[in-house]
Amino acid sequence: MKRHALTKAITLATLLSAASFSVVAADIPLSAVVEADQISTKVVSVDAANHQVVLEGPEGRQATVQLTEKAKNLDKLKPGDQVDIKVTRAVAAYLDTDVDKGLPGSTERTGEVRAAPGSANPGGEAYRQVKVQLKITGIDVKNNRVTFENPKGQSKTVDVERPEVQAKLKELKVGQSVYVTYTDILTVTSKRGS
Asked: How far apart are CA 186 and CA 124, in angstroms?
């Protein structure tokens, strides 16, 4: 299924971004984390004309979901159908070893894949990926802290808690860039109720 291939490709690209860039320059992977949350809900009602669906969660609480006009096949969704919602979050960080690479910046990409028009089971997948360049402005090896400047010129000091990253603090230099890639993937699938 195309949607599952998209999830795997984007998550893998996020996690391997440091490794792929290391071929081009002497970049050092710092960390990579993937988390996923999933919930199964039941369709209570569908208002296809207004693009609204009322879902009931596992605890019996109901929520009205307002969809955009891009949502297709809502006429195929019926009360009692099951809708599974999965959110996958991935964060990967790597260090660019070049000093004074330039000012911090950010880029964003988005995309989506929807069930084909007329599909018996509505659903789809959407992703948002943000890549942020942070400039190192201070390093405190003794206390395991690094200060960064973000694209808006704001500074923030973070405590480095992971031992494998703490071990790399001695290799850092003021002026280097750390690239952090955040990826969120939303997958919605549906199937007929029993």
From this structure: 8
Which residue shows structure tokens 């031992």?
163
The count of domains in the chain is: 1
Helices (H), the chain: 2-15, 17-21, 163-166
Ordered per-residue pLDDT tens for the chain, 194 residues: 444 544 554 544 444 443 333 333 445 666 778 888 899 999 999 998 898 999 998 889 999 988 888 877 888 889 999 999 898 998 888 777 665 556 677 888 888 887 777 777 888 888 899 988 888 999 999 999 999 888 888 898 988 888 888 888 888 888 888 888 899 998 888 888 76
Q: For residue 81, what are the domain limits? A: 2-191
Under DSSP, the state recorded for 169 is: G
- Where residue 79 falls (left for φ over 0; alpha for ψ -120 to 50; beta otherwise) is beta
Does the pTM surpass 0.70? The reply is no
Contact 133, 151 (CB under 8 A): yes
| Whole-angstrom distance, CA of residue 168 vs CA of residue 30 | 8
Q: Is the sign of the CA dihedral 94, 15, 22, 166 positive or negative?
A: positive
